[in-house]
Amino acid sequence: MFGICSQQGEILYESSVHTRTVLSPEGLAKSIHDHLEEKNLLNCIRAIGIGAPNGNNLSSTIEFAPNLPWKGIIPLGEIFENAFGVPVSVTNDANAAALGEMVFGNAQDLKHFVTITLGTGLGSGIIVNGELIYGHDGFAGEYGHIQVIPDGRLCGCGRKGCLETYVSATGVVRSIAELQSVSKATSVLIEKNVTSAREIFEYADAGDQFAQEIIDYTAEILGKSLANFACFSSPKAFVLFGGIAQSGEKFASKVKEHMEANMLNIYKNKVEIRISSLHNVNAAVLGSASLVWSK
Ligand SMILES: [Zn+2]
């Protein structure tokens, strides 16, 4: 997905190209370039921000990205600079979301916060003193891979018990099979063969007890984890972003409850849980564009 965004956060144009249909990163840059040239939009581009899985801001590369057809270390920033002739900034998608929240979203009043993006996996972007934390090599803020359950579920990273194996769209679905054997609640999740997090949330809203148990379980693991994460940077808020987070206030308030119950005294009742305000507009485009404006 790509778009053109004004400094005021207005998306002037957007479109998409599937990364599977282009054979190389150079081919991706060229196809976007040619598309915008055809629409007569090249002249208005001053800089480019790219948010991509495993995008590294320090080296302007994507490194061993999952779900992308190109393997190894790809100098994506350089490739786009060559194609467009403007400055290019690269970061990972969760970091882009954090910047988007600070520049255009629900954290414009904050200098210390953490975004938690809940999609297929769990991403995080840590803002301290109004700046994104990149760490010594550009990969700071991988909260999704903090191991929260000893010897727990196998994660895509090869280790066990990572937060994202429980708290993500796929994690919520994995909870169906795991909790089914211990739950006494009545439910239609099994007979309806529910296989999406969205449906689980809908059934929970409609009063399905087992679906509610799954959501409580998810909120508890996330809430406890956020209580731990608060110790690291003392954020003013955690901003939840993504389908699960934005399914309503109920999930967020349960997360808050569990976070407070597990919080160290000095942080109690000081850390907000906010829900991203970027869901109605295109957060991917705005987040990546904020990379440029935040420089
Ligand atoms: Zn992991």
Please give a quick description of this structure.
The protein has 295 residues and is α/β, with parallel strands linked by helices. The protein has helices at 25-38, 76-84, 93-103, 169-180, 197-205, 209-233, 249-261, 283-293; strands at 2-5, 11-15, 48-51, 55-56, 61-63, 73-74, 88-91, 113-118, 122-128, 131-132, 237-241, 272-275.
Overview of the structural elements:
The protein is α/β, with parallel strands linked by helices. The protein has two domains: 2-91, Nucleotidyltransferase, domain 5; 110-275, Nucleotidyltransferase, domain 5. 35% of the residues lie in helices and 16% in strands. The protein contains eight helices and twelve strands. It has helices spanning 25-38, 76-84, 93-103, 169-180, 197-205, 209-233, 249-261, 283-293, and strands at residues 2-5, 11-15, 48-51, 55-56, 61-63, 73-74, 88-91, 113-118, 122-128, 131-132, 237-241, 272-275. The strands form four sheets. It has a five-stranded mixed β-sheet, sandwiched between helices. The protein has a three-stranded antiparallel β-sheet with strand order 4-5-6. The chain is globular. The mean pLDDT is 92. Bound molecules: zinc ion. Zinc ion binds next to loops.
